[in-house]
Amino acid sequence: MSDTPLLEVDGLTRRYGARIGCADVSFRLWPGEVLAVVGESGSGKTTLLNTVAQRLAPSEGVVRYLMRDGTVRDLATLGEAERRFLARTDWGFVHQHPADGLRMNVSAGGNVGERLMAVGARNYGEIRATAIDWLGRVEIAADRIDDGPRTFSGGMRQRLQIARNLVTHPRLVFMDEPTGGLDVSVQARLLDLLRRLVAETGLAAIIVTHDLAVARLLSTRMMVMKSGRVVEDGLTDRVLDDPQHAYTQLLVSSIL
Amino acid sequence: MTTYNFAYLDEATKRMIRRALLKAVAIPGYQVPFASREMPMPYGWGTGGVQVTASITGPDDVLKVIDQGSDDTTNAVSIRQFFARVADVATTTSTTEATIIQTRHRIPETPLSPGQILVYQVPIPEPLRLLEPRETETRIMHALAEYGLMHVKLYEDIAKHGRIAKTYAYPVLVEDRYVMDPSPTPKFDNPKMNDSPALQLFGAGREKRIYALPPHTKVISLDFEDHPFEVQRFTEPCALCGSTGVYLDEIVTDDRGGRMYACSDTDWCERVRAARAEAAE
Ligand SMILES: Nc1ncnc2c1ncn2[C@@H]1O[C@H](COP(=O)(O)OP(=O)(O)OP(=O)(O)O)[C@@H](O)[C@H]1O
Ligand SMILES: [Mg+2]
After folding, report:
1. Residues of chain B contacting A115 with CB distance shorter than 8 Å
2. Phi-psi category of B44—alpha, beta or left, where left has phi over 0 and alpha has psi -120 to 50?
3. Residues forming beta bridges with residue A208, ordered by sequence position
4. Which one-letter DSSP state was computed for residue B36?
5. Residue A47, ligand 1, Cβ within 6 A
6. Considering chain A, what is the average pLDDT of its residues?
7. Would the pTM of this model clear 0.90, i.e. be above it?
8. Backbone angles phi, psi at B208, to 5 degrees
C-alpha cells in the first residue's frame, strides 16, 4: 500500500430536501483496497456510493481523489468534461440492475468495446480482440460476442457489465449490490469471479451490499451504516467477529 | 387576396433564420436551434431547406432544386415552382448556372464553385439519436466531444455485416470537432463535402435545427483503421451517357425484370450526352 490514499472522504453529507440520505461520512480508501458498505435498507448506502462517485452532488463535505498523474484533486473542482472522463476511464460503476449499466441494444462486444472507443481506439480488430479477452475473463464464451445482453441470463449480464467497466483498467470500481438480483449459486460464482479479478488487477473497490457474506468474501474493510451515518468501521474480519456497536451486533447475530 | 412577402417568409423570420445561419457558419457542424415556421407544405417535403433557401434568396439568385439527383421529381418541381411564384426568382436545372441549389439527397456531380450555396433538406439532424435518445445527454456529448458512441454504431455494423453497411446519412467529423449527420445524402457524396468551395447549409424543419459547412471546411467520414471509409462503386457505366465514377440509380425498364443503371444526377447525364452528340457531329 502506498502512503497516499486513493480516495479521501471527509464529512460527506447528502440530503434529499429535509431528509438525510447520508450524513457526515469520512473514510480513506487505499489503492487495491476493497471496502464494503453494509446496513439495512434505507440506511444510506446507495446515497453514499453515488455521492462519492459524483453521480449525486454532496450537500456538504469533500471527496479527494489521487489522479493518475499523481495529483490529489477535490472532485468538486473538476469540470464536467474532466469528471466524465475520469468516470469512464479510471473508474467503473457496476449497477445492481445490469440494464442500468449496459447498452441493451448493443452486442456484448460493443458493450465491452465502448469505453475503448470512447478513449480513441480506432482499430476494429484490436477492439474485438480486447473484447474477446475480457469476455473470457468474466467467463463468457467468445462465440457470444455478437449477441445482445437481452439473450443473456442475469448472471451473464452482470458479468458483462463488469467486463465493460474493467476494460479500461480502472483503479476504482463502485458496485451497488452487484449480486443483488441473482440466485444463490449464480451469486457464488460471481463473487468468486469478483474476488479473482480484484486480486489480478489490484483495483480498489467500494461495494455496497446488505449481505454480510458478500462483505466477508470480498472486502478487507467495512463500514456499517444506520440512518445515514456510519456507526462502525474496521477490518472486515474484526467487525464481523467482534462487533462493537450494538447495531452491528444485531446485524451480525441476525444473519449468522 | 393574400399577398406574400418576398420569398414567402416575413422579414423578421428571415432575420431570425439568418442569425441562426451565421452562428451555424461560425461553428461548423454545430446544430443551431431555430424557431422553425409552418410552411405551406408538409414536413418531410423539406420545410427546413425551404426556410433556409427563403432566407438567403435575393432577386438576382438562380435556383436549382433536386430530389435524389433529379430536377424533375414532384418534390423538386413543386419547391422550384413555389420559389418562382413567391420570390419571382429565376430557376434552372443547370448546376453551373445556379447560385443556390436546394437538395434532398445528392450533391451534384458537376464540381461546385466558389459563391454557390448548397441547401440540404434534413429530416434527422442528430447523429447520436439512434444510440442515445435523450436530448439532454446528446447535447452534453456534443459539448464535450464525447463521440465514442458513434464508433460503437460502426463497430456493430462490422460485427453484423462484416463491413460498415451504412450507405447514406454516414456520419462525419467536421473540423476535428463536431460529429455531423449529412442525412440523407448517400455516402458516395461525403467526400464532396470536404474542402468544398461552396457554402453548405443544412435545414431540419420538423427538428428545428440549422447547421452549416463554410467553404473549405474539413469533413472526414468516421471509420476504423482496418475498415476505412469507402464510397459505393458501380461496376458498369451509366447506360445513358456512359459516365463512370458517378452515382447511379437502378432503373426498372420493363415488367420482365429488365433493369439498367443510369446517372442519378439528371443534369450531369444530359450535359454529358449533349457533349457526346456535339463531338459526334
Ligand atoms: N431520490 C431520493 N429522493 C428522496 N429521498 C431519497 C432518494 N433516494 C434515497 N432517499 C432516501 O435516503 C435514505 C437512504 O436511501 P438509500 O437509497 O441511500 O438507502 P440504501 O441503504 O441504499 O437502501 P437499500 O438497501 O434499500 O438500497 C432513505 O431514507 C431514502 O428514502
Ligand atoms: Mg441501495
Report:
1. 148
2. left
3. A37, A176
4. P
5. yes
6. 93
7. no
8. 55, 50
The CATH class, in words, for B11-126+173-220 is alpha beta
pLDDT digits (tens, 9 = 90+) for B93-142: 999 999 999 999 999 999 999 999 999 999 999 999 888 889 999 999 99
Residue range(s) occupied by CATH 3.40.50.300 in chain A: 1-90+171-256
B 211-250: CB under 8 A from A: 223-227
Give the CA distances from residue A103 to residues A112, A173, A194, B148, B240, in Å, rounded to whole numbers and listed in that order. Answer: 10, 19, 21, 13, 48
ipTM, two decimals? 0.89
Name which of B125, B228, B231, B136 is nearest B179 in CA terms: B125
Is the per-residue pLDDT at A3 higher than 80?
no
A146-153 LR contacts (CB < 8 Å, sep 24+): A146/A107, A146/A108, A146/A109, A146/B159, A146/B160, A147/A107, A147/A108, A148/A104, A148/A105, A148/A106, A148/A107, A148/A108, A149/A98, A149/A99, A149/A102, A149/A103, A149/A104, A149/A108, A149/A111, A150/A104, A152/A108, A153/A186
Domain parsing of chain B, residue ranges: 11-126+173-220, 233-281
Q: Using an 8 Å Cβ cutoff, are A38 and A207 in contact?
A: no
Query: Nearest bound ligand to CA A21?
Result: 1
* Matching residue, cell 414532384: B74
Assigned architecture for domain A1-90+171-256:
3-Layer(aba) Sandwich (3.40)
* d(CA A48, ligand 2 centre) in Å: 9
Query: Mean pLDDT for chain B?
Result: 92
